[in-house]
Amino acid sequence: MSSDRKIVKPKPLSGFPEWLPEQRLVELRWIDTIRRTFEAYGFCNIDPPSVEDVDVLVSKGEDADKEIYGVRRLGGGEMRDEPKIALHYDLTVPLARYVAQHFNELSFPFKRYQIQRAWRGERPQEGRFREFYQCDLDVLDTGEVSLHFDAELPVIVYEILRQLHVEPVTMHINNRKVLQGFYTGLGIADVVGAIRILDKLDKVGAEEVNRLLVDDLHIASAVAAQCVALASIRTPDGSFEERIREFGVHSELLDTGIAELKFVMQAAEAIPAGVVFADLSVARGFDYYTGTVYEGKLSAFPGYPSVFSGGRYDNLVGGFLRQNLPGVGMSIGLTRIFSKLLAEGQIAVGASCPTQILVIQLPETPREQAMQTGRALRDRGFNVEVYHESKKIGHQIRYATRKGIRYAWFPDPAKHEVKDLASGEQSPADPATWAPGK
Amino acid sequence: MSSDRKIVKPKPLSGFPEWLPEQRLVELRWIDTIRRTFEAYGFCNIDPPSVEDVDVLVSKGEDADKEIYGVRRLGGGEMRDEPKIALHYDLTVPLARYVAQHFNELSFPFKRYQIQRAWRGERPQEGRFREFYQCDLDVLDTGEVSLHFDAELPVIVYEILRQLHVEPVTMHINNRKVLQGFYTGLGIADVVGAIRILDKLDKVGAEEVNRLLVDDLHIASAVAAQCVALASIRTPDGSFEERIREFGVHSELLDTGIAELKFVMQAAEAIPAGVVFADLSVARGFDYYTGTVYEGKLSAFPGYPSVFSGGRYDNLVGGFLRQNLPGVGMSIGLTRIFSKLLAEGQIAVGASCPTQILVIQLPETPREQAMQTGRALRDRGFNVEVYHESKKIGHQIRYATRKGIRYAWFPDPAKHEVKDLASGEQSPADPATWAPGK
């Protein structure tokens, strides 16, 4: 307690969110719900290291090198067999590496979920963090992956969001084959380049996209206008097909894409109206998507980045394995959703601890009586604290109230009593039979 | 599938353990048990970032600088407001920083648990990893922290180990005041230095400790011998006191230490005989311990490093806060225990997924029938997969067997049947009422 001691009170690290106990308690409950739902559909969990070999990350990195966080001992110096490592920036690259490495020990179709942190060295802004939780689920197989999985993932994700009361949300589904087939039908040579430009529609607007298509890809202005017009199609059902057909553009790939998208939209009928849309503006920047693509938004906050996303890919393990592994997956941006709804006051934060019952230390009662009561209630599945300090009863009650503990238990051997601190009601109770109210 | 593609099959990173799905499933169950038990005693969870400001880590680092993993963008270059960060090497420093930073928003006594990874850039060896899970629980307060907490922590930790079948274990408890009081009573000036040397007893042996005490601290050989002799005391109960008293050494601190250790040993009587020992050889290297110290061993593997440890400290937040915060805590080395028992074949690893029931796709039955059956069973709380690919029934059953899925469900609308793949028995069943066997 010397006053001349140098005190440096720690400050938050920008981009590294941290929650108070009462907030973390809700986040944990969210993670439990997500995990339980993933498992209800038979997905297994994997938990790869936080780091990967730098070459693994950079090889898949799509120009993300600058944002990758390298990891290196502060002490420096050489250590034998020391790998060059960096923190993963998503959960997809670790999945690809994991499946390639353990290929012979896994059963396919491989359905896995992953709930982990990921790291990106970017400038923090609203919804963008340097460290954040992602919740991913993917299905990979050695042969074909049934389109039924494309249809099932939105149902699973919606079920989670509904349970978490993350509403209203909108889910935007497209199929890259529709875009590629349409562009091919229009005679565009650089289809991938065109998709990359269209992906910017949200950010830069229709006029700029039009200009980029004309200037960068040398596409005729009228053709570029059709690309932009296609992106404006958004329907709550399979009716997007008629809208596409009006353009009179034809290609086999377009037909396949339309059929696939209609299949997924039909399965999505299990989700309440107003949530799912076939949205032809969704392109997803990543080149590895080849079919269905998903994107989710908090509809109350239109400017906020997408809160879940994913899609289908033809091969996730290129470069790691001689075999192709197609699949389909979806990723929920847990920290992005949680931090926003917390900041908006839309998450009900309550108790700061999981304790349900505080056993009071009565001055005239032997201590062992309180301990025994605690054990008896704990054995019945309750979360129970025995107050350990020698403090006045009023002080103990205030401790319970401050932490949001609902019940205070008076372990008087002659007559146990329990007080409901919410209602103020106090009544006799038996540790062997008592049940909480409400 | 081109054969000229360059394939680099990924290799494991040394020191970064990674489990197969069936192993991870058990690890997750372990984490659930640990968490549930921590919460049953009213500890709240916190989940600080994986990184801290480098200065925060180094200031508390006890010469650990060389092992700290710094984190830096690979791209390099300057970014405004970019903190200098490193991965935490334990969960205690983040706790200290967290409590100091959020001091006014927390309720005391602050009882928290933390289940997180930590990172150390050391050379991997058996039981030592570069990335590992720790499970910590600590109680901190602004004033006194009741000795009842010192007595409760071993009970909680033992309850966890028993549930996980981590047996046989031994728990070694000492009190730094006993050592300090004894050394003071012997007239030793550099008490902290003596404790640091005694802490090496396990590694270097009695003769070398004797030599170090004499040569480095200029302690008389006969006195040094008494220090070493004290460390040989190990009793399953409070009888260590008589053994200490035989030395005829006296000091007030020694009396306090003996009383505290006896108090903790008495509470430990709730733990089966043969587990807990008052062990005067336990010193714990860290200088911040000031009272009770704990150390746990897997008794079947005497050479293996300690698998849990902890102790009492007078002040955890020195340098961060003007106020002193005493506390007591314990840390379970989850990865260290799990990896060892796994390697020794002592962990029963079963199914590679959480699925309980696979709903078979019958060729002559409408698909919706299978989907509906899946939903009905899922609504009743079962983990259920519907087989999505169009494969023969035998293939679907083999998939279930390979993944360790116990039940195959045949959703024939006229007559539902379920096959127990463990017994081979097949019988009629109703999705609305069916219950698993055993």
What does this structure look like?
- The structure is a homodimer of 438-residue chains.
- Chain A is of the alpha+beta class.
- Helices cover 35% and strands 19% of the residues of chain A.
- Chain A has helices spanning 21-40, 54-59, 92-101, 147-163, 176-185, 191-198, 201-204, 206-217, 221-231, 240-245, 252-267, 334-343, 367-379, 393-403, and strands at residues 44-45, 51-53, 69-73, 85-87, 110-119, 131-140, 169-175, 234-235, 276-279, 289-298, 308-313, 327-332, 357-359, 384-386, 407-410, 417-420, 426-428.
- In chain A, helix 13 (367-379) links the parallel strand 13 (357-359) and strand 14 (384-386).
- The radius of gyration of chain A is 28 Å and the shape is elongated.
- The mean pLDDT of chain A is 93.
- Chains A and B meet through helix 1, strand 1, strand 2, helix 2 and strand 3 of A and helix 1, strand 1, strand 2, helix 2 and strand 3 of B.
- Strand 3 (69-73) of chain A pairs antiparallel with strand 3 of chain B.
